[in-house]
């Protein structure tokens, strides 16, 4: 099989940009679980928009990697919903076009947040032996990239198993003060530096059961603080 040749993306490579001064959508415009009423400030990215953007990312990935086997490395827990939906969209393209992208899916878990603060220590669980990645095309699927420190550490770890190619799909990239040089190859949205929850992103394990990506309110933070 020929090597993958990745063409530069034409426009939209950094994702849909959501400006710092954008107030978000009022929660009254959407439905969401009643148990979170009062816990959220606004909707930043509605579920339908996430799905539409993911569909396009799937097409970009198919354009770059189509007809090659890939190993999808899903970064839990926050990345599970994005990974499921991205894999589903790629599967649909494999069924409904004359290209195909055989995928294997592997799960690893990273943990570095307590409340809304990043802790220094990064734990990688389920990534002890990734030797099966040697010579493979790997797509890392991550929900959110902030400073990029976590992504950098993970990339270094994955690289040590000598895959042929590593690409990263990140649903959200946060504009933090010390943004990294290490940005995903496929970005859904670039968002302001605010703590967001929903679509599997949590605050102390809450809010994963919320479809939209929302900004948590101060009272929400207090209610679920540990
Ligand atoms: N929300 C949830 N988890 C996170 C975030 C966030 O904004 N940033 C890094 N991990
Ligand atoms: Mg978390």
From TrEMBL:
Keywords: Cytoplasm, Glycosyltransferase, Magnesium, Metal-binding, Nucleotide-binding, Purine salvage, Transferase. It catalyses: IMP + diphosphate = hypoxanthine + 5-phospho-alpha-D-ribose 1-diphosphate. Its EC number is 2.4.2.8. Its main location: cytoplasm. GO terms for biological process: GMP salvage; guanine salvage; hypoxanthine metabolic process; IMP salvage; purine ribonucleoside salvage. Residues 51-203 form the Phosphoribosyltransferase domain. Its cofactor is Mg(2+). One of its GO terms (cellular component) is cytosol. SUPFAM superfamilies: PRTase-like (SSF53271). Pathway: Purine metabolism; IMP biosynthesis via salvage pathway; IMP from hypoxanthine: step 1/1. InterPro entries: HGPRT, Hxn_phspho_trans, PRTase-like, PRTase_dom. GO terms for molecular function: hypoxanthine phosphoribosyltransferase activity; magnesium ion binding; nucleotide binding. It is found in: Cytoplasm. Belongs to the purine/pyrimidine phosphoribosyltransferase family. This is Hypoxanthine phosphoribosyltransferase. It comes from Notothenia coriiceps (black rockcod). The gene is prtfdc1b.
């Amino acid at each position: 099989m020929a090597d993958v040749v990745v063409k530069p993306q034409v426009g939209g490579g950094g994702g849909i940009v959501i400006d710092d001064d954008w107030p978000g959508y009022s929660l009254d415009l959407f439905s969401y679980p009643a148990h979170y009423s009062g816990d959220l400030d606004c909707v930043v990215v509605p579920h339908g928009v996430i799905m539409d953007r993911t569909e396009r990312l799937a097409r970009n990935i198919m354009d770059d990697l189509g007809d090659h086997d890939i190993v999808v490395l899903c970064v839990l827990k926050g990345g599970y919903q994005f990974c499921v939906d991205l894999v589903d969209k790629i599967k649909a393209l494999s069924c409904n076009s004359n290209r195909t992208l055989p995928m294997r899916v592997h799960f690893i878990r990273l943990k570095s947040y307590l409340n809304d603060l990043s802790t220094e220590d990064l734990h990688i669980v389920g990534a002890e032996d990734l030797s099966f990645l040697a010579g493979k095309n790997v797509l890392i699927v991550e929900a959110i990239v902030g400073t990029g420190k976590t992504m950098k550490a993970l990339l270094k770890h994955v690289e040590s198993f000598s895959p042929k190619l590593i690409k990263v799909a990140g649903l959200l990239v946060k504009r933090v003060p010390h943004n990294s040089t290490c940005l995903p190859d496929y970005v859904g949205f670039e968002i302001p530096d605010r703590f967001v929850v929903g679509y599997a992103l949590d605050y102390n394990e809450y809010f994963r059961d919320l479809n939209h990506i929302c900004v948590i309110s101060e009272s929400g933070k207090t209610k679920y603080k540990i």
